[in-house]
Design brief:
The complex is a heterodimer. By secondary structure, chain A is α+β, with helices and mostly antiparallel strands. Chain A is built from six helices and eight strands. Classes of the chains: A alpha+beta, B mainly alpha.
Chain lengths: 280, 182
């Protein structure tokens, strides 16, 4: 990407960026260009310096007592950190010394802590009650969402059930010719597909016993072989669908079947590797 | 030549940052001495009211203490980083309901606050505010909108009653004029 630097510097984008008027997207763009083009970086710096000098002219000393207030606040923060650190140390020492206590009133701090804890809890309960009210409302909304998701799931289950019944019908058909297609590829030694050919209707169904998942953009294609003719008998799906019996194209005549891996959608003439083959 | 505010005793930035990270209170005192004037100036210009500005100045230092681990030299100088914290905190306050309520009930006497600024200037900057005095009002106006009010291009255009393109061009020229004045 070649930048016309002169034009870019003229455009005013850098000045707008330095002042802080640009969008986050524009900022990213300027910063990228600054990384790639030192002239852009230099220009940004020059503008920054000028702006800073202007801002510094508004310099005004705050009242003297503010410093004390600031330092006091920082001291308090520091003490918080130190107190936390110290109490952790104390706990460690207690654990190490197996909690040996020599003072009779050593339970006092624990009582104080318990009272404080009760106060915190009661405040907490109020907060919880309020939050519960809020969350009940949102839970209702969630439940309504879940309902519609469940309804969808139900639809899918019903479709599956229906297809199981169909599968059973296909398998029980007395006119079926079964063809076992076995592996022809060294890289897929377990590959196997069962093909069902209805001698009457010439319908063809197949069920994948074992085939590797194809990479994206590829799909398995069935071919029927009649002597020298190799005829496309359709593509089929893998993934979840491969568990089911899938219907292929009608095949009037064949003495063998084969499956190759082609690009998604299939091809008119087989090009890809042949995974399985079987004679009728 | 512009330089960031420097104290009499010099402590280099890397060492200061390291001590700030260790929550060394003396380092925070140095930070305050060195930069509080610059930060307060910006915060006051944004918020205009002394009390609120002083409150936000304190908030700024508390934030610096809490967020110092997030600073790294790759993000720029320490001063730019803390200046951003001051500006962002001030603009947040500017947009708060509380501030809006106060602004309605206590209008600022702008002449009074201007003269106050001149009086409490640091002694090594007596009188001369070269850029503020020489930058044309229309350019100071866009800088006021974008930098001191946090307006976007669109908001500035609306506030000034100007087309978007004019605002962008004005910003370009404003910065160019500033560069001429350095």
């Amino acid at each position: 990407m070649d930048l016309n630097i002169k034009e870019y510097l003229e455009s005013g984008i850098i000045e707008n960026y330095v002042l802080g008027a640009t969008t986050p997207e524009e900022n990213r763009d300027v910063e990228t260009k600054a990384q790639n083009y030192p002239e852009v970086q230099t220009e940004i710096e020059a503008n920054r310096v000028a702006l800073l000098e202007y801002i510094m002219e508004f310099n005004q000393e705050p009242p003297v007592e503010i410093k004390d207030k600031v330092m006091a606040k920082l001291a308090a923060l520091g003490e918080e950190d130190e107190a936390e650190e110290a109490s952790i140390q104390r706990e460690i020492r207690q654990i190490q010394s197996n909690g040996a206590r020599s003072h009779s009133l050593s339970w006092l701090p624990y009582l104080a802590a318990a009272c404080f804890a009760l106060l915190v809890i009661s405040i907490g309960l109020n907060v919880v009650l309020y939050n519960n009210w809020q969350s009940t409302i949102s839970q209702l909304q969630l439940a309504q969402n879940e309902k519609s998701i469940l309804a969808n799931d139900l639809n899918v289950l019903q479709t599956d059930f229906k297809s199981n019944q169909d599968e059973l019908a296909i398998l029980k058909n007395p006119h079926n010719v079964y063809v076992e297609l076995n592996t022809t590829l060294d890289e897929a030694p377990e590959a196997q597909v069962v093909l069902i050919w209805d001698a009457q209707t010439k319908d063809v169904f197949l069920q994948v016993r074992n085939l590797p998942e194809p990479p994206p953009g590829k799909q398995y294609q069935l071919w029927s072989i009649d002597g020298e003719n190799v005829v496309d008998a359709g593509v089929f799906d893998m993934g979840k669908k491969s568990e089911l019996i899938q219907k292929m194209k009608n095949v009037p005549k064949a003495n063998a079947f084969a499956i190759t891996l082609e690009k998604t959608g299939g091809v008119p003439v087989a090009e890809g590797a042949m995974y399985v083959h079987g004679n009728v | 030549m512009f330089t960031e505010p420097q104290p009499k005793e010099s402590i280099n930035e890397a060492e200061l940052v390291s001590r700030l990270r260790n929550k060394d209170r003396k380092a925070y005192a140095i930070l305050y001495d060195r930069y509080s004037g610059a930060l307060y100036g910006v915060i006051l210009k944004i918020l205009k009211y002394d009390e609120i500005a002083q409150d936000v100045l304190q908030d700024t230092f508390v934030k610096i203490w809490k967020k110092i681990d997030a600073y790294s030299a790759t993000k720029g100088t320490l001063f730019t980083w803390i200046l951003n914290i001051a500006r962002n905190t001030a603009i947040d306050r500017l947009r708060s309901q509380d501030y809006k309520r106060i602004a309605k009930s206590k209008p600022i006497d702008s002449i009074a606050s201007e003269s106050k600024v001149n009086v409490s200037q640091k002694t090594d900057h007596i009188g001369v505010r070269k850029m503020v005095e020489n930058l044309k009002p229309e350019y100071q106006e866009v800088i006021e909108m974008v930098y001191f009010k946090g307006y976007t291009h669109v908001e500035s255009a609306e506030a000034l009653g100007l087309p978007l393109g004019t605002v962008k061009t004005r910003i370009k020229i404003a910065l160019r004029e500033l560069r001429k004045l350095t």
